[in-house]
Design brief:
The chain has 358 residues and is of the alpha+beta class. It folds into 2 domains: 258 residues, q2cbj1_9rhob like domain (Jelly Rolls, Sandwich), CATH 2.60.120.620; 39 residues, no CATH class. It is 30% helix and 16% strand. It has 12 helices and 13 strands. The strands form 4 sheets. It has a 6-stranded antiparallel β-sheet with strand order 1-8-5-10-3-2. A 3-stranded antiparallel β-sheet has the order 7-6-9, with no helix packed on it. It has a two-stranded antiparallel ribbon with strand order 4-11. Strand 12 and strand 13 form a beta hairpin. Helix 3 crosses helix 5. The chain is globular and about 65 Å long.
Length: 358
Amino acid sequence: MEALESTSSGVESLLPGVPRIESPFFEQIFAALAPDPETLRIARELHTRGYAVIDFPETEFELFADSIRSDLDGQFDWAFWKSQGHRQGISLRAQDAWRHNEAVRRIACNPRLLDLLSLLYGARAWPFQTLNFPVGTQQHPHTDSVHFSSVPERFMCGVWVALEDIGPEQGPLVYYPGSHRWPIYGNEHIQRCVAAMPERPTQALYEPLWRALVEAHGAQPDHFFARRGQALIWTANLLHGGSPQQDPERTRWSQVTHYFFEGCAYYTPMLSDPFYGQVDFRELVNIATGETMPQRYAGRYISPAFIQACQGSLEWSDLGAFDGQAYLKANPDVAAAGVNPAEHYLKFGIKEKRRLRP
């Protein structure tokens, strides 16, 4: 991965695979870049706290906010949510509304924000997902690093922007300052091989760990009581979530856009066991350009054949002349289990690189 700009100290070239704002050479890098005072404030807060608050840099923000609220309001079952959904911790959301709402897309692709993120991370930022919320998410505190991550790690960030004023009764954001500095824990750390699990995992696998980490670190939560038009940038590993919504009659309109950075591989760690043969590569579109973004590793493009093999993406129709009896003879443990050989091969054998014949 090549940095957007070289620095006079040269230290950035020693760790180009670490975002500038998370680099151990942070002070030298930003001294050489010499950004304006506001950009330096944002960089320093991301470096030390894992998040920074800004005024969203869009001159037509009021118009966009009103358009989004008017367009998306009718998509939600308000009666159910107000009567019982909010008590059950259910969130209302519209994912990837940028596909049909131009205001959502414009916020996600704001040029000044993209330039700012690119400077802060040292690689070109691109938006890949939007989420619009009319109420609080009420989410358990979590780190985005289990849901979508990059190689090199930490080249992902989120930007949450308030489409209205938000107070304590509306389920404001909650986050743990400094938690972005904690290690990124994956399936290997909690000893769960999801490739061998019968059901699709959820972040519930990690929630006991996150609670224990908060207690072990003595981490204290902070809340974001935002004004309309304020935005919060957060780093990939910051522990964050949504407070309970206390007043179901009030809304909490907001937009989240997630950004990756060019030159990386993009995948879902929670659905991946790389050393067991499974990597859940994400096929993503750059919202700003409509381009499907390539997967890259250390400056090299990753082969589509390798991606397909890691995802175990073959289907029944791809089996062709598969010989089930030969497969069972080559794999006596499968035969002893009494399972369907073709089904086992598609679900496990491909990932485990099983022999097809004795």
